[in-house]
Specification:
- This protein has about 230 residues and is α/β, with parallel strands linked by helices.
- It folds into 2 domains: about 140 residues, HAD superfamily/HAD-like (Rossmann fold); about 80 residues.
- About 45% of the residues lie in helices and about 15% in strands.
- The chain has a 6-stranded parallel beta sheet, with helices on both faces.
- Helix 1 packs parallel to helix 3 and helix 7 packs across helix 8.
- The longest helix is centred in the middle third of the chain and has 16 residues.
- The termini are close together.
- The relative contact order is 0.18.
- Magnesium ion binds next to loops.
């Protein structure tokens, strides 16, 4: 492995909390839509189906999420109940934080140490305005030589970044909490990868990581990256 690497970081649920805000909103939404007729599990499955159908095309972010909550409510609630539910759902989405972040512990110090030895980049997926607002609010922007907000994280995304930033895949590592978005497609593009465990990774982001793949390392805490790099 070359001495100097390019370390690319996912942002949401890798550098700062994100999914927890969506999980809390879903809890509030379930209280609005279930009404004794649907179980919370069945309603959540209905929402997952809509989000999965839009995973690649419909974008992610608070606005898209609000649309998905409403679409799922339209399938769950009878028309007579829907009219009263819509403003309550809109209020749930309006109360979600936008452009504010809480960094996980040791993130800033760990990045400061890593950037003395390596080139750092940020690759985050979502609504560009929302993601850039979070990057600015994080105070971390200056740590990164490269930053991209992308629409999806598939192998071609990482190949395009390889070309755009002049990366050597053999000297590039993607670090993130999502097997589906950060690990599997980055490996397909020839990068190595580090999966950073996170307790509440979004259900749709889970995927199988080959346990025998020695190009993937696992850490439980962000600061453990200093032991790897
Ligand atoms: Mg993430």
């Amino acid at each position: 492995m070359p001495d100097r690497l390019t370390l690319l970081f996912d942002a949401d649920d890798t550098l700062w909390d994100n999914n927890v805000h969506f999980e809390r909103a879903i809890e509030a939404w379930l209280a609005v839509v279930c009404n004794g007729r649907w179980t919370p599990e069945a309603a959540r499955d209905e929402l997952d189906r809509i989000e999965e159908a839009n995973f690649r095309s419909g974008g992610v972010g608070t606005s898209a999420f609000g649309v998905h909550l409403r679409l799922a409510a339209e399938r769950i609630l009878p028309p007579a109940d829907l009219a009263a539910a819509i403003p309550r759902i809109e209020a749930i989405v309006a109360a979600m934080p936008r452009g504010a972040v809480t960094l996980f512990s040791s993130v800033a110090e760990t990045l400061d140490a890593l950037r003395l030895r390596h080139t750092l980049g940020l690759v985050t997926r979502g609504d560009p305005a929302e993601q850039w607002a979070k990057i600015d609010a994080s105070g971390l922007r200056d740590r990164f030589t490269h930053i991209a907000v992308v629409e999806q994280k598939v192998p071609d995304t990482y190949r395009e970044l390889t070309a755009r930033w002049g990366l050597d895949p053999a000297a590039t590592v993607m670090i993130g909490n999502s097997p589906r978005s950060d690990i599997v497609p980055a490996r397909e593009a020839g990068f190595r990868a580090v999966l950073v465990s996170h307790a509440t990774t979004w259900r749709l982001e889970l995927a199988e990581v080959d346990p025998d793949d020695d190009g993937v390392a696992h850490v439980d805490r962000f600061a453990q990256l200093l032991e790897l790099f």
